[in-house]
């Protein structure tokens, strides 16, 4: 992806976010783009608007009619976890179990994700916030369409700004490509840190991919160890409680 293409995508996502928030156009950036897929978006951490909160974002998500997915959902799925997490896990979108419960990652893939995170001392009720790129289930678990991702872009950006996690853990191709504005495959992106708006971001495989292909479990475990090492560098409490880097 060229720098010009990235700029166009960023402008589109900014416009969508402004429209969904209150309809007023805001100044964004400055962005710094380079040609190629590895650079991704580079924007200073977004400021938190006065009066904004995770509860307000969740309420807006629940009431959102911004794309066709809202017409078929049972429940929107804003996300869950503590307000000051070490890690924000970002997946693609809700599945059937998530649509039924309004909670993220509660099906078989979610149960595997919980076990994976617990293996390095991360828990959704303690130090890890879990969310998705889109907040309503795409039919038949298909990939979100560009307009669907754009409709939720403002919500996700506000969640990241409010949470300000130490690390973002993007699981799967769709969230990784969305956050980094790249078309590069997850097999090449996984396991190495980049940044999203100044926050370290580590891509890895989606747990559902591990359920389909057991050969991916070993590289996924390597990614978890990479994540743990970074967290030990960033947070003394985590390093002490987790027993240090593996």
From TrEMBL:
Metal-binding among keywords: yes
Catalytic activity, as annotated: Hydrolyzes single-stranded DNA or mismatched double-stranded DNA and polynucleotides, releasing free uracil
Domain Uracil-DNA glycosylase-like as annotated: residue spans: 78-225
Gene Ontology annotations of biological process type: DNA repair
Domain of life the protein comes from: Bacteria
Stored CDD domains: UDG-F4_TTUDGA_SPO1dp_like
Keyword annotations of the record: 4Fe-4S, DNA damage, DNA repair, Hydrolase, Iron, Iron-sulfur, Metal-binding
Listed InterPro entries: UDG_Type-4/5, Ura-DNA_glyco_family4, Uracil-DNA_glycosylase-like, Uracil-DNA_glycosylase-like_sf
SMART domains according to UniProt: UDG, UreE_C
Enzyme class: hydrolase
Molecular function in Gene Ontology: 4 iron, 4 sulfur cluster binding; metal ion binding; uracil DNA N-glycosylase activity
EC code(s) of this entry: 3.2.2.27
Family of this protein: Belongs to the uracil-DNA glycosylase (UDG) superfamily. Type 4 (UDGa) family.
Name of the protein in its database record: Type-4 uracil-DNA glycosylase
Source organism: Breznakiella homolactica
Biological classification of the source: Bacteria, Pseudomonadati, Spirochaetota, Spirochaetia, Spirochaetales
């Amino acid at each position: 992806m060229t720098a010009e293409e990235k700029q166009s995508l960023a402008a589109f996502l900014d416009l969508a976010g402004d429209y969904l928030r209150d309809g007023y156009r805001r100044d964004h950036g400055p962005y710094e783009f380079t040609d190629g897929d590895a650079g991704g978006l580079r924007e200073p951490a977004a400021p938190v608007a006065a009066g904004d909160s995770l509860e307000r974002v969740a309420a807006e998500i629940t009431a959102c009619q911004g794309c066709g997915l809202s017409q078929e959902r049972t429940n929107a799925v804003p996300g869950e976890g503590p307000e000051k997490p070490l890690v924000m896990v970002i997946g693609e979108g809700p599945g059937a179990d998530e649509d039924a419960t309004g909670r993220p990652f509660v099906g078989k893939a979610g149960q595997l994700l919980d076990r994976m995170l617990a293996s390095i001392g991360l828990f959704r009720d303690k130090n890890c916030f879990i969310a998705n790129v889109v907040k309503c289930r795409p039919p038949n678990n298909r990939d979100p369409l560009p307009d669907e991702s754009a409709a939720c872009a403002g919500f996700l950006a506000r969640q990241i700004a409010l949470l300000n996690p130490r690390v973002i853990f993007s699981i799967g191709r769709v969230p990784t490509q969305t956050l980094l504005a790249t078309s590069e495959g997850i097999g090449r992106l996984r396991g190495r840190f980049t940044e999203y708006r100044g926050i370290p971001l580590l891509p890895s495989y989606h747990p559902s991919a591990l359920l389909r292909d057991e050969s991916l479990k070993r590289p996924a475990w390597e990614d978890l160890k990479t994540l743990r090492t970074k967290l030990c560098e960033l947070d003394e409490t985590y390093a002490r409680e987790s027993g240090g880097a593996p």
